[in-house]
Specification:
alpha/beta
């Protein structure tokens, strides 16, 4: 749809604006700015809000109605948006725009849609075994027909670039849309009257205004996302040594992924651990070259570069405790919710350890001794295996997690690390053996590592699916479309948590080979 101003609505009835925003997105601030702008222009305005009960069960709906004064009479304004009777819908997250369409708030004869195309993922999307992110394409397609005019771009990214929040960009987009018959100065005056974060808000407002006013034909097409360049030095001798290896031992096309893996593993453990990763990758690249992998763009090594780094940075209680107590995490959350300096924020983490996690954090010998005492493990599990609400804002809990995180230097001596390394070695051994007979199938073997993620019960379920899928590899060797079959098994394993789709796919595979 063209991004040209559509002109003000007629005012024989109130002009209505519905804002859909989640917590921390400034929906209330945006509403106050709109009301202030209307009143500054001499209009009568009223705002209401109805909070949603959860992220995707419903964002908070803020509603504004406004009307020019008439003969000194005060109009009666509505408290809630009515389907088919909304002039502007502003959605601070893209799926909320889709929800507004489903609820009938957006109509082709009347509504201007202003929506940020970024996503704040729902819990249901995050919880799926594989990539559970819902496609945004149907919302894009529907907006072409559902709305009179659509202004859609990544407002969150624009806000971050200007050091502000998304509500300021949305306010600018509303002003730039031309729906409200107020000059730009009236909107800016509303921001200044707010008195907080004025300069960053004005910058973000201006960016949103210019973006919404830009005709579609002159808007720059989004660039294809290119991997960032791999530096040759970061000024730290030990890390620079790893960069020298990446540039000297590996083809250019593989370097971005290897650099990402090195950064991840250095943060996870240390420089030496990242060096072990490069040692393994050097050997895998040599195998790839022997099998003629250059013709396939080194697909085998590229897959290994990604999934080996993920496998070596497995989630354990040490990692969880480390991430939950990092200062950067508290700073990020403060920024996301808009916490002020004079406010205190307390977070409650839900943790449910099992005795298996406790044994995994023991030295290998001691952990194996406990595993040989199943009765003792069951007894201790009764005390350990229960949900806990950990308040990291309290000194006791924070120090407890800090002590667990401090075990990182000893991680290589622990039973969990030994088990993970055994599992990784078995996986890589299967991949290398397979590569000597079926290169494409070996690449799919490496991709199967995405089935394993998380920790505790999530990790156990993923690892069980991983083992079931890879158990089919020997029977696939020499079969037509072997790589395709393994890919379909992996897709089935990601389809549901219970594994019913995988069980059905394995039966299909068995019957297909029998036939």
């Amino acid at each position: 749809m063209p991004l040209t101003p559509v002109g003000p609505a007629t005012f024989d009835r109130p002009l209505s604006i519905a804002i859909l925003a989640m917590g921390g997105q400034g929906g209330g601030v945006l509403t106050d700015w709109i009301v202030a702008a209307a009143e500054h222009a001499g209009w009568i305005a009223q705002s209401t809000s109805v909070p949603g009960v959860a992220q995707r069960t419903g964002a908070t709906i803020y509603y504004v109605e406004m009307l020019p004064p008439r003969d000194g009479r005060h109009p009666v304004l509505s408290l809630m948006p009515t389907p088919g009777d909304v002039d502007v819908v502003a959605a601070a997250e893209f799926m909320e725009a889709g929800r507004a369409m489903l609820r009938g708030f957006i109509t082709p004869d009347r509504t201007t849609l202003i929506a940020s195309t970024h996503r704040s993922l729902a819990v249901s999307e995050k919880g799926k075994p594989g990539d559970g992110i819902a496609s945004s394409e149907p919302v894009f397609e529907a907006s072409d027909f559902a709305a009179r005019h659509a202004i859609q771009f990544d407002m969150q990214a624009l806000a971050e670039r200007n050091g502000s929040v998304i509500s300021a960009v949305m306010f600018g987009a509303l002003a730039g849309s031309g729906v409200l018959p107020f000059p730009r100065e009236t909107f800016e005056a509303a921001i200044r009257e707010g008195g907080k974060g004025v300069e960053p808000s004005l910058r973000a407002f201006g960016a949103g205004f210019e973006r919404a006013s830009r005709p579609a034909e002159t808007a720059p097409a989004p660039d294809a996302e290119a991997p960032p360049p791999v530096p040759t030095s970061v000024g730290v001798p030990q890390l620079d040594g790893l960069l020298v290896r990446i540039h000297g031992e590996f083809p250019e096309t593989l370097r971005p992924m290897l650099f990402a893996g090195v950064k991840r593993l250095t943060d996870y453990q240390d420089v030496a651990y990242a060096g072990e990763y490069l040692d393994r990758m050097r050997d895998l690249l040599a195998l790839d070259r022997r099998q003629g992998g250059e013709a396939a763009g080194h697909a085998f090594t590229d897959a290994a570069a990604k999934y080996l780094a993920v496998a070596m940075a497995y989630d354990d209680v040490i990692r969880v405790a480390d991430l939950k107590t990092r200062a950067s995490r508290f700073e990020r959350i403060d920024k996301e919710i808009g916490k002020r300096d004079d406010q205190l924020l307390y977070m409650t983490e839900f943790m449910h350890p099992r005795m298996e996690e406790v044994i995994g954090t023991m030295p290998k010998g001691l952990g194996l001794w406990f595993e040989r005492k199943p009765g003792l493990v069951r007894l201790l599990d009764r005390a350990v295996n229960r949900g806990r609400r950990v308040k990291t804002g309290h000194v006791g809990w924070f120090l407890s997690l800090n002590c667990v995180a401090a075990l990182r230097p000893a991680r290589r001596l622990l039973l969990r690390h030994a088990r993970e390394m055994q599992h990784i070695e078995a996986w890589l051994a299967l991949a290398t053996r397979t590569a000597e007979q079926d290169y494409a199938l070996a690449v799919e073997v490496l991709h199967c590592r995405r089935l394993v993620k998380g920790y505790s019960d999530t990790h156990a379920r993923g690892e069980a699916k991983f083992d079931h899928v890879l158990a089919a590899v020997p029977s696939l060797l020499g079969k037509p479309d072997s790589a395709g079959w393994l890919r379909r098994l992996r897709t089935a394993a990601l389809a549901d948590e219970a594994g019913e789709a995988l069980a059905g796919a394995l039966m299909t595979l068995e019957h297909a080979f029998e036939a």
